[in-house]
Each structure stands twice: as C-alpha cells, then as structure tokens.
Amino acid sequence: MTKTVLVTGGAGYVGSHCCKAFAQAGWKVVTLDNLSRGWRDAVRWGPLIECDIRDEERVRGAFNLYKPDLVAHFAAFAYVGESVSDPALYYINNTSGTLALLESMRATGCGHLLFSSTCASYGIPKAVPIDEKHPQAPINPYGWSKMIIERMLEDYCRAYGLASVSLRYFNAAGCDPEGEIGECHEPETHAIPLVIEAARNPDRPFQVFGTDFPTPDGTAIRDYTHVSDLARAHLLAGEMLLAEGGTHIFNLGTGHGISVFELIEAVKRVARRPPAIRHGARREGDPPVLVASYERAKRELGWTPRHSQIDFIVETALRWRVYYTPR
C-alpha cells in the first residue's frame, strides 16, 4: 500500500531533494511550503499546499485530506547571522512554528515526524569527530531554536506517543546529479556556491574568514555531505520510524573534514579556473573544526554517504549553477 509523506519546507534546498528521494521510492509526496524562502519550481513530485505551518486551520485541513503516514519537517529559517540580529524571527518561525505543527499532528492523529536538525546545536566542539553524545551548547539563536525543538519532540513522545527522528546535518552540499533541482538561496551564504561564483566571476571574490586557525593549513575545516546522501538518510529514517516508533537522533556527515583552502582547490580543479579570493578575519564563534561521526546512522539505519566526495559535490553544484539555475 502506498505510503504518504507530507514535507514541510519541501520547496527548499534539502526538502526538495528529499521529496525526490521519497517519490523515487514509491511514496506519495505532498509539499507544504509558504514559499517565503522556497521555490515553486522545486515542487515537482506531487501537490503543493501553499501555506505557513502556523496556519493551523489549513494545515489540519491538509492532514485530513491527505492523511500522511509521515511528516518530514524542513520548514525553518537557517541563517546564523540573521538569527543573532533578529532572534525573535527564529523563535517564532522555527520553534513556535514547529509547536503549531505538532499540535496539528496531534489533532489529526498523525504520529510520525522526521525533523531537520543541525550540528549548530553542539556549539563549539569539545572533541572531534562529534557523536550524538557530545554536549549540546548552541552559540546562536538558530542552534537554540533547533535544540529546543529536539527537546519538544522528546517530551511529545513521552506524553503523547509521537514518534520522531532528529537528523543533525553538518554541511549540506551539492545538487541533484540529474539537474532537476538544486541550491538557490537569497542571499547565498553557503561556501560552495560562493566559491563557484568566485571562479566564474572574478569581480565577486570569495571571502576566506580566517587563516590562523589551529588546523594544518590555517583555515576552518567542515564536513560536507552531498544533499542526495542526506535525502537517502531521510528515506531510511522514515522507514525505520514507521516500523519501530520511539525517539531517535542521528548525525549526518562523512567523518572527513575539508578545509577552506582544500575547497578552493577542489573548485579550481573542477571549474578549471582559480576562484578569486580575499582574506578576512575570523568570524566570532567559528569553530576551527566541525566533523561528524556517523557511526550511529551506519549501525542503525544502514546509511553511509555514497556521493560525498568533494569533487563530485562541486561538479554537481557547478553544473546546476551553469546550466539549470533559474534566471
């Protein structure tokens, strides 16, 4: 019997790739998005309900109409700097919005949720690679908004039986290898699209924030995971959740870090031209190294990253940027 997933924020970057993964696996996909930061063109696998997750009347109507077996929840704001300058926006949209969604699920009897969480909930790491037992100590409102939601999910499971999986991403990267969907942000803050743009347009150099980190080449190290690998993890987690219930948390990363200079070299190799760069000071609160341990996901979900080699990530991102990005 065909299962149905309702994807909040399914017109966004990671959400749209997950929609494709569920559809290819035979699920019926319903996207719910207010399009404030998503793209109508990214909704290609099933109907779009254009509304905010805080609009409980319309959200509950969608649940009653489509009767989803599972909710995959991506609807959130995700700019760290914006969360510092306007924390109310993040607590209202991310945290209160999720509370409204949970109440809509309770009211309509939908009991399974996948939550798009973040490594930002760990704050400055005490040790790397970071596993799920690492203390959570966010250093910005974005990280706090996600961490609070994780606690809400634990409480809702204990009190109401809501089953959930929280997936803590490190650095989502790359684009659909088939070019159907990709990465579009306004403004763009992610490193890989910015380095690619600096290779294509020398008038828009890439800013390197800090060359004095305690790392081999002095630049910050991050764990880049191809968005298609993340999408497959959501599919595996959804299937596990329907079978087992409970509350679960998984890191999603590769276990391997790439420095900023190594990323610039990867773009140079793939694009066959050097990106224009300029150097700046470290950003406050930037950890030197963020690398995930994904052993729990490997053990319990059977998930390993298959497409997260840095050159392949850059290749898919470059192809999208050159040939497919809406203009």
Automatic annotation (TrEMBL):
Residue stretches making up the NAD-dependent epimerase/dehydratase domain: 5-253
Pfam family, one: Epimerase
Pathway field: Carbohydrate metabolism; galactose metabolism
CDD domains attached to this UniProt entry: UDP_G4E_1_SDR_e
Cofactor(s) of this protein: NAD(+)
SUPFAM superfamilies found in the cross-reference section: NAD(P)-binding Rossmann-fold domains
Subunit structure: Homodimer.
Protein name: UDP-glucose 4-epimerase
Gene: galE
